[in-house]
Specification:
The chain is an alpha/beta fold. The chain has one domain: Glycoside hydrolase, family 3, N-terminal domain (TIM Barrel, Alpha-Beta Barrel), CATH 3.20.20. The protein has 15 helices and 8 strands. It has an 8-stranded parallel beta sheet, with helices on both faces. Helix 5 (102-118) runs parallel beside helix 6 (149-164). The longest helix is centred in the last third of the chain and has 18 residues, at 315-332. The chain is globular and about 60 Å long.
């Protein structure tokens, strides 16, 4: 029995979940007790006020059964801004590309990082490293920094440095590139007809730059996009060719690979969550994200448990994925169990932060 409990806790560390409402639901608490979940992603539906966010994040920080969880959010700027007043609001990242200043990019990353850390977060699912090469793209567009991969790389590097300097883990997305698609993977499975040569010249450049030198990217989020000229059978999230051969072996990525939400229609209306979990595990994914439905979250955990018990997936690879999660947490997490509310109230949305936000908006 002890062995099963031990195994479940190792598997639980591989799942990031979302939920509804401003408090952790009791059924999720029970799931955490059993599995020791790896992390949480918060959306607008969870965030009512700064005071409530601090309460919620303190509650989350105590979960994980001895291993503090990732507490993440999509705080990109522009339309992907989840936090209520008085958090500083930034223009979309395309504006950063137009301003084209490494120092402004650093300041933006630092402000986002400071405000997130001060209120209990430790992970930002940003920056978007997609290159905005298709004007008809319905989901990326101005969320991307630029259509120039060199500019995306240099400004994203500064953003990541700003986040890291303020104890926030950055996650580059959506690997290997969602910028050239014409569909939205929330609604369907996009197909991208670019070949490997073109991807190396454009889409992969920002990732490559962020894997070399400092600051190094610790986490990459996969794209639920099919690239038939690279892997005709499996979309990127489920593709061993893309996750293992390209990202790990060719590009040398050592950090964590996290799926985009497995509840998106690009997954649920093609292979389904159970098969997607199995394929993503085989492809080399470390973290599985399931953003709202507890039944589907349980399904991911139980599928992983079944794979572990059947022994069809090599033991040393199980250990590698789990130890990557622990290493990234150990490197970035501060040992803070409570939020300093006085400091947070003074910091979030202060005059200096608003000045930096205005600099970006006004293009100075």
């Amino acid at each position: 029995m002890g062995d099963l409990r031990h195994l479940k806790r190792r598997i639980g560390q591989r799942l990031i979940v979302g939920f509804d409402g401003p408090r952790v639901p009791p059924e999720l608490m029970r799931l955490d007790e059993e599995w020791g979940l790896g992390g949480y992603i918060l959306f607008r539906r969870n965030l009512e006020s700064m005071e409530q966010i601090m309460d919620l994040n303190e509650e989350l920080w105590d979960l994980g059964q001895g291993v503090p969880p990732f507490i993440g959010i999509d705080q990109e700027g522009g339309r992907v801004h989840r936090l209520p007043e008085p958090y500083t609001v930034f223009a979309e990242m395309a504006q950063l590309g137009q301003v084209n200043s490494v120092s402004v990019a650093y300041e933006v990353g630092a402000v986002i990082g400071r405000e997130l850390t001060a209120t209990g977060f430790n992970l930002n699912f940003a920056p978007v490293l997609d290159v905005n090469t298709n004007p008809d793209n319905p989901i990326i567009g101005r969320r991307a920094i630029s259509e120039d991969p060199e500019l995306v790389a240099s400004l994203a590097k500064a953003l990541v440095r700003g986040l890291h300097d303020n104890a926030i883990i950055a996650c580059g997305k959506h690997f290997p590139g969602h910028g050239h698609t014409t569909e939205d993977s929330h609604l369907t499975l996009p197909v991208c007809d670019l070949d490997m040569e073109r991807m190396r010249q454009v889409e992969l450049k920002p990732y490559q730059r962020l894997m070399q030198g400092s600051p190094q990217l610790d986490m990459v989020m996969t794209a639920h996009v099919l690239y038939p000229k690279i892997d005709a059978r499996h979309q990127a999230t489920l593709s061993r060719t893309i996750q293992q051969d390209l990202l790990r072996l060719e590009m040398g990525f050592k950090g964590l690979v996290v799926t985009d939400d497995l509840e998106m229609k690009a997954i649920t209306e093609t292979v389904g969550i159970e098969e997607a979990t199995r394929l993503a595990l085989e492809a080399g994914v470390d973290l599985f994200m399931c953003c709202s439905n507890i039944d589907q979250q349980v399904q991911v955990l139980e599928t992983l448990l079944k794979e572990a018990e059947q022994g069809s997936y090599p033991r040393h690879l199980w250990e590698r994925g789990y130890s990557r999660v622990r290493e990234v947490k150990a490197r970035h997490f501060r040992v803070v169990r409570t939020v300093d509310r006085v400091h947070a109230r003074e910091l979030v949305g202060n005059r200096e932060h608003l000045r930096i936000s205005r600099r970006l908006k006004d293009g100075k």
